[in-house]
Amino acid sequence: MVSKKPRIVIIGAGMAGLTAANKLYTSANSKQAFELSVVEGGSRIGGRISSSEFCGDRIETGATWIHGIEGSPVYKIAQETNSLHSDQPWECMDGIPEHPVTVAEGGHELNPSFVEPISKLFKNLMDFIQGNAIDSDGFATEILKHCARSCGPGNLSVGVGNWSRKSLQEAVFAMHESTQRTFTSADDLCTLDYNAEREYIMFPGEEITIARGYSSVIESLASVLPVGMIQLGRRVEKIEWQADGLDGIHMENGYCNNSRPVKLHFCDGSTMSADHVIVTVSLGVLKRGTSQDSGMFNPPLPSFKTGAISRLGYGVVNKVFLQLSQETTDFPFLQMVFHPQDSELRHPKIPHWIRRTSFLCPIYSNSRIVLSWFTGQEALELESLTEEEIVSGFSATVPNLLPSKPTHKSCNGTTEQPRKANK
Ligand SMILES: Cc1cc2nc3c(=O)[nH]c(=O)nc-3n(C[C@H](O)[C@H](O)[C@H](O)COP(=O)(O)OP(=O)(O)OC[C@H]3O[C@@H](n4cnc5c(N)ncnc54)[C@H](O)[C@@H]3O)c2cc1C
Question: What integer pLDDT is reported at residue 328 of this predicted model?
């Protein structure tokens, strides 16, 4: 009897699947020890990492930042493949400016001396709630001072346009909440488990972006795998596996193959058998796949796994890229402060889906491509809008914030449409 090599199939060719494939394939004696395949439902590798081009500029429709470089395997690969240098400008090459321009609805530019205490308060609150070290005495004093400022009589006297001082303070605080929502992808920050947040530890060191694009890391991981090992357009619909050993009979190409206990069913009706499967699909796919009526796993996964999958939260984050008109120059890193959705003072033409978005900024200094992030309900709503509706929403908003500056033109033609990316 010819003994067969065990077959390992990795589902998903994103960062996780390709890292697993790279590690397995480059491990000692791998070619003798097992067969390896990667099956990917989409038409490209990379999953939520995709560097692409928009109006001549390089953009990241998915992951952008290496969150801490010291000890980061992503940084190591980017460094080894010389991906951290480029002659061409790239998204966020300038990082995030220390003093962005903050403008309140109605075109009122806010003095940093007004914004910064609120920014500091918000940062301290987040640090406190996430269990990061803060100067707790100083923090308590700061909260007291802030409350005194917000609630004291001085508050009633000063304002700009139709803003009272207090409503402006609250709106700046809300702007920070919106930014924080993009970091966590939570629709509502109150739904986060801040004890669990404490377990999220970043690598130390700088946070940087990758000059030659995040996809260069993906390409490097995939480059060691032989042609044909990654199969695209192979969406898995069902995973039949054996909770209690090798009881089932598996047929593949007419060959009775009892030794492979897992059978993958693809959306085109084809199947593949395997000894081991590494599932790297996203949490959203797993949640749907383990819901009552799904049957993606047969038999269902054990309850400790389905329980963990159901308890983990996730959210939607979208990036929107727009091209500014030729005549627009020096567009700032703009922090946007809006009246709340239910305020009678809000400008009627500014769409509600922009009101919980906090910034619009060039992807690098002087680029004509500007970027904004959306999270939660608004991100979902954005997905249902046409590109014309998105452009028209921004066209109604930006002049209200930067009245003296020419606004971006409405895009037309395929290369000038806004781009959306989702998490
Ligand atoms: C807009 C955005 C910005 C982000 N910014 C950052 C950032 O700055 N820094 C950072 O570190 N992270 C960032 N992230 C998160 C980061 O992109 C992800 O954590 C990471 O890419 C996830 O990789 P993964 O392999 O786990 O999953 P994915 O990339 O989702 O890969 C899963 C793969 O499985 C495939 N698949 C799904 N279902 C099936 C099926 N049934 N059969 C076969 N294949 C299937 C999918 O097509 C996909 O290719 C961002 C994400 C988004 C969307």
Answer: 84
40 lines ligand 1 (CB under 6 A): yes
- Domain extents in the chain: 7-49+211-311, 111-197
Angle at which helices 215-223 and 15-25 cross, to 10° = 30
398 pLDDT band, cuts 50/70/90, is very high
Query: 318, 373 in Cβ contact below 8 A?
Result: yes
Regarding the beta carbon of 287 and ligand 1, being less than 6 Å apart is answered: no
Q: Closest ligand 1 atom, CA of 422?
A: 53
Q: Which of 34-43, 78-87, 394-403 is predicted least confidently?
A: 394-403
Omega before 348 within 30 of 0, i.e. cis: no
Average pLDDT, the chain: 87
- Asked whether the predicted pLDDT for residue 238 surpasses 90, the reply is yes
Q: How far is the CA of 65 from the centre of ligand 1 (A)?
A: 14
Q: For ligand 1, is residue 277 a contact (CB within 6 Å)?
A: no
CA of 86 to the centre of ligand 1 (A): 25
Residue 236: per-residue pLDDT: 98
User: Is the separation of the CB atoms in 370 and 320 below 8 Å?
Assistant: no
pLDDT band at 258 (very low <50, low <70, confident <90, very high): low
Q: Taking each helix axis as running N to C, give the angle between helix 73-80 and helix 215-223, from 0 to 180 degrees, rounded to the nearest 10.
A: 80
Backbone torsions φ then ψ of 239, nearest 5 degrees: -120, 110
CATH architecture of 7-49+211-311: 3-Layer(bba) Sandwich (3.50)
What is d(CA 271, CA 251) in angstroms, rounded to the nearest whole number?
10
Claim: this prediction has a pTM higher than 0.85: yes
Compute the distance between CA of residue 256 and CA of residue 250 in angstroms, rounded to an integer.
Answer: 6
Q: What is the DSSP string of 143-184?
A: HHHHHHHHHSTHHHH-EETTEEHHHHHHHHHHHHHHHHHHHH
- Is the distance from CB of 264 to CB of 39 less than 8 angstroms? yes
Q: Residue of the nearest CA to atom 20 in ligand 1? A: 48
Mean pLDDT of 220-246: 92
